[in-house]
Amino acid sequence: MFSLIKTVAPLSAQKDEARIINELISFGIRQIVVTRAEKGATVFLQENNSVKKVHKDAVQTNVVNKVGCGDVFGAVYFYNYIKNKNVILALQQANLFAGVATTYSEIKDFLNLKRDANERISKK
Questions:
Q1: What is the CATH number of domain 2-122?
Q2: Are 32 and 43 in contact (CB under 8 A)?
Q3: What's residue 1's pLDDT?
Q4: What is the DSSP letter of 15?
Q5: CA 92 from centroid of its chain's CA atoms
Q6: What are the domain boundaries of the chain?
């Protein structure tokens, strides 16, 4: 079971993020993904009876539009995680594709998302 959330506060009566995460993990949720817009994203997961935290900063872009970026992030994260079972790779890819998507001003630009993300990787 996964949970993709933008903020964890509405999911619990707790106020502290760590307490909320621990509460959700206690219900059997295996991963909690917290997206933080320009601050990146964090995945919390249970590993060896403790909660592991993996954070990746957002990709720096010239933001034109944020509409749909969360959808892109979620789709890319889950696709990559299901394919590779690698949280770090899934998080990196999701941040990359969502970041590239912020540079698009028209819907037709999304047809180039995979190409543009791959070009950004090759420039590193």
A1: 3.40.1190.20
A2: yes
A3: 46
A4: -
A5: 8
A6: 2-122
